[in-house]
Amino acid sequence: QMTFPLVLSILLVTTTVRAFQYTDLAQYIDSHEEEYVEALRDWVAIESDSANVLKRPDLHRMMEATAQKLRQMGGAVELVDIGEQELPDGQTLALPKVVSAQFGNDTRKHTVCVYGHVDVQPAKKEDGWATDPYNLTDINGNLYGRGASDNKAPVLAWIHAVEAYQALNMELPVNVKFVIEGMEETGSNGLDVMIVAQRDTFFSDVDYIIISDCGWLSRRPALTYGTRGNCYFTAEVQGPKQDLHSGVYGGVVIEPMTDLIGILDSLISPSGTILVPGIREAVAPLSDEEWKMYQDIQFDVDSYKNKIGVDQLMYNNKVDVLAHLWRYPTVSIHGIEGVTAKFSIRQVPNMDPQVVKNQVTDYLHSVFAKRKSPNKLKVTMVIGAKPWLADTEHPLYEAGKAAVKRVFDTDPDLIREGGTIPIAKTFQDVTGKDIIMMPIGGFDDGLHSQNEKMSRYNYIEGTKLFVTFLDEVSKIKKTSV
Amino acid sequence: QMTFPLVLSILLVTTTVRAFQYTDLAQYIDSHEEEYVEALRDWVAIESDSANVLKRPDLHRMMEATAQKLRQMGGAVELVDIGEQELPDGQTLALPKVVSAQFGNDTRKHTVCVYGHVDVQPAKKEDGWATDPYNLTDINGNLYGRGASDNKAPVLAWIHAVEAYQALNMELPVNVKFVIEGMEETGSNGLDVMIVAQRDTFFSDVDYIIISDCGWLSRRPALTYGTRGNCYFTAEVQGPKQDLHSGVYGGVVIEPMTDLIGILDSLISPSGTILVPGIREAVAPLSDEEWKMYQDIQFDVDSYKNKIGVDQLMYNNKVDVLAHLWRYPTVSIHGIEGVTAKFSIRQVPNMDPQVVKNQVTDYLHSVFAKRKSPNKLKVTMVIGAKPWLADTEHPLYEAGKAAVKRVFDTDPDLIREGGTIPIAKTFQDVTGKDIIMMPIGGFDDGLHSQNEKMSRYNYIEGTKLFVTFLDEVSKIKKTSV
């Protein structure tokens, strides 16, 4: 039953090739909603949890299923071996292969590369799921299941977008490549190396990279143009040579844990102000244009508080909340193991990770020195990931805005992500290509938590957005790249 | 070869019974040094690690070996079933039985009960041991092995003390009972219930309880007359209903971890002052007599710093160091799991755990309130163990001093323990008996750390101390009890 439309489309290709027709594509997509839901059901049923080594066979099966789907559509598909990962116990485990695929290689056209992932966060019914997380369940038009929104439905929506062109015998307006990985949820292990290795081959003719691994901010569609960077630190206070029993020595020994708590408490004020000198000064000032842009974004502070379950935020008005989520830095203390603490500073333009490293290290050492402790402090920056920021006036974003306008009859909110999507920065740095983040997930999809869902509306309209965006990208002048 | 001296002593008992003769006992003990070392070697070879459930068969074997030894000496021995322990995974595991034994039941004599334990802390060669921790190794008169000092040699020394009387056909000056457990290192699970259950039977005729589960402070012998109590707290900061991703929400949400660090940092100043109001005021003032007593104790601050591997203590003079180790309270922060911190206040007279609980809870809530955080703080006192303090002028301590004087030709240091020995307080509260702590371990035995050892000197002279102490106890007037 799968081969019939394929054979049909191939037959049609040999006769007439049609140009982009939005109405036909939208109608085709609407009429295939149930098939799309079934495809998502099949994918969600595969427990492709990349954090659980026992699920690695399922993850391999997920990559195979993805490759198989793209092969059936006639793509030039490869399963790229990216090696092994080392487990904490020293054993090694094969990484899931990365699926790369290509549809079309007309050098007169632009080439886009869609990045996505088909691994998921862990999920167990007993964690508080209302439904079986691996059995896609439709409740009032919401499709509940682990990985539904992050990132299986968006990947499928891109596949359906290409399929729709094929089925209607419409010419793909641009060449479309795919890079689908299976380790995103645990840090995209191995992907960097693959991107570097294929920079001058697979990625050489790519013009634009599209990432749909995020969500809207509200019910209004959005384009994402920035993410915060991440300077991740460890701070260790080294004390006496022996592991001293607190009862036996407590009272005369200056305990490393007390020192550690003291320096951590110097990082941030109760109201959330970063106390490390120089950090706030480095932040690019909020311009009037930006202020106005934030003011126009559809975002309700009360709904947001309600959604995340807090009574009070650090700020009460929309602009402040959005600015502090996206374009101001923040310090988070993640935890303490032994006498080593982990904390991170989410970073924004114009901060420089190397400068942040020095600012934090110098400051903590000065705070520590004032304690006059005989212990030793060691501060290490483990990760120094830069923020990513795109130009929202770039033709790629203009194409995105036009696509949103056409499908949703509204302008998109231009938003950022408070988190870090390191792969965006890697793509940018290694390939030098322009990147757009085009989310189709809902603001309340519950990524990484219980009861993750994707709505039928976002899934289907998102597929329409993708077919349209391909057409809009094709209109970008080659010279403007 | 074990039965020969036993049979011999039984034969002698039927002929003549001699009175206490220190010289003969000391000579006998000296001439049996190698046998005592071999006995310790056999016990150390049993990996009676009570923390490791996989070693539980070894622990059972250790309790059997202890019982068997006491049976061979003609004691009335019982292996008391104290039930099961529940493991974190919900499974249950049989606790090691408690060995009780009795030698003599002459109602005209005092009855002492020796408490000890034969379980040990975990030890692995690769933790940094210079020798195999379970193969007793003699280096320059020091016997290295896990449990050598804590607490196998002291328990054996008590056994050898009774044996020496028997072998020399000397009448035991007092009735001697033993209570030897196998769960001390993990919290004496089940022992409380056994003490309560046997209060009116096994413990009813006991006059004095002797604990030799501690060490000297220096090369000078010591009697221990106090331990600090322990108020153990958890503090949890409850935040948003969801587990929020720090990148996505950081900057607008007041993070529970930041609040938790802030309140922990309010407990103690960098120089070690407890900041909880009322705590310092409750501490019994240091009297001139106490100051003088501390001044006379043999204790070198520099050696102490060297031993524990710190360059600087909170105090530089002996009296301050000892006072802050033993008779002033201290706050230790043990760690943070999730957003729950664990900390404890070592407690001293005249602090009251219930008052400490209120002081700490009120203070932390007031500190937390000043933060104006929307999160919730929950403070719980998990343990409220009182300090233990004995009267050093009590006839039992006078007997101890006399015994030390006789064996070592010096007065003992009268010392305290900075830690908590909850079983001392349990014995005191449940049985109402007087307790003496009579250590024979060296100050540098390395309890709980790598390269634990017991010196031949302390082991042998300690056995002499025990035979002598029994004689001294017999001189206490029955009425003075």
TrEMBL record, chains A, B:
<dbReference type="GO" id="GO:0005829">
    <property type="term" value="C:cytosol"/>
</dbReference>
<dbReference type="Pfam" id="PF07687">
    <property type="entry name" value="M20_dimer"/>
</dbReference>
<feature type="signal peptide">
    <location>
        <begin position="1"/>
        <end position="19"/>
    </location>
</feature>
<dbReference type="InterPro" id="IPR051458">
    <property type="entry name" value="Cyt/Met_Dipeptidase"/>
</dbReference>
<keyword id="KW-0732">Signal</keyword>
<dbReference type="GO" id="GO:0016805">
    <property type="term" value="F:dipeptidase activity"/>
</dbReference>
<comment type="similarity">
    <text>Belongs to the peptidase M20A family.</text>
</comment>
<dbReference type="Pfam" id="PF01546">
    <property type="entry name" value="Peptidase_M20"/>
</dbReference>
<protein>
    <submittedName>
        <fullName>Carnosine dipeptidase 1</fullName>
    </submittedName>
</protein>
<dbReference type="InterPro" id="IPR001261">
    <property type="entry name" value="ArgE/DapE_CS"/>
</dbReference>
<keyword id="KW-0645">Protease</keyword>
<feature type="domain" description="Peptidase M20 dimerisation">
    <location>
        <begin position="225"/>
        <end position="368"/>
    </location>
</feature>
<dbReference type="InterPro" id="IPR002933">
    <property type="entry name" value="Peptidase_M20"/>
</dbReference>
<dbReference type="InterPro" id="IPR011650">
    <property type="entry name" value="Peptidase_M20_dimer"/>
</dbReference>
<dbReference type="GO" id="GO:0046872">
    <property type="term" value="F:metal ion binding"/>
</dbReference>
<keyword id="KW-0378">Hydrolase</keyword>
<keyword id="KW-0479">Metal-binding</keyword>
<dbReference type="GO" id="GO:0006508">
    <property type="term" value="P:proteolysis"/>
</dbReference>
